[in-house]
Amino acid sequence: MSGGHFNYYQSHIQEIADQIEHIIHMNGKEDDLNFSPKTIRQLKKAVRALKIAYVYAQRADWLFSFDDGEESFHSRLKQELSEIK
Length: 85
Fold this sequence. Notes:
Elements: H1 10-26, H2 37-64, H3 70-82
Helix pairs in contact: 1-2, 2-3
């Protein structure tokens, strides 16, 4: 496993995004999850922001751990950010 500069804490960012996505998916399917469309739109924006934050943290982690050089950092950052919906 590469990285480690941040003790892999960036994985927590991805876990939060995944949990919010699950809540969005379950909205209206469980009694206690009945958020308005307005709230769901904001939660979707939150998921996107968290995914972007994760990519930046992950790429910085690899850069600071010397697993990537600056060229790879920029290349992978651009590629991974372009894949975020």
